[in-house]
Known about the structure:
The complex is a heterodimer of chains A (about 110) and B (about 110). Chain A is mainly β. Chain A contains no helices and eleven strands.
Amino acid sequence: xxxxxxxxxxxxxxxxxxxxxxxxxxxxxxxxxxxxxxxxxxxxxxxxxxxxxxxxxxxxxxxxxxxxxxxxxxxxxxxxxxxxxxxxxxxxxxxxxxxxxxxxxxxxxxxxxx
Amino acid sequence: xxxxxxxxxxxxxxxxxxxxxxxxxxxxxxxxxxxxxxxxxxxxxxxxxxxxxxxxxxxxxxxxxxxxxxxxxxxxxxxxxxxxxxxxxxxxxxxxxxxxxxxxxxxxx
Lengths: 114, 109
């Protein structure tokens, strides 16, 4: 089983619908991240969390919200999806023992908003 | 502003050597990462450099020059499975990662 699991892997939805992407990890890491990836652009950070009580906005948080339900779970919500939120979304984790540790990514969630 | 530049696409031949360059401008610097990403899959860690010089790891090596804001990833003895995108990312003074758009490497027989 993957250390970082994302659900759903693929989702097609309509404009205005609420969508939740879920991420769970078995690595025991404190730090969790949500990124989106668009063709021709680098990964862009949406939100990140250093522990259950610590949630921080990334560079493109508008239109998104998150919930850190437990150390192992970090969910991303689109309250009212719009077409330009069509993208590949990645959850990632990093050990809290060092700021320069490698990121471990989930398999990705491909979201299409019609 | 912060910026990471790397070529969009490169083509190389199986068995050959290829060098993928990355130049960066960031607010502070706490290291540079290289990740590999096969199409439709998650990025996976390749290397981390924070000091100047060359780090070798099997067929892959990564070089950093902090004074020049420059890094490269060197892939030797190319195999077909090396066809992937290679992502360069810098960690700024706030320990946030700034990502390049990635270099798509195409390996031909």
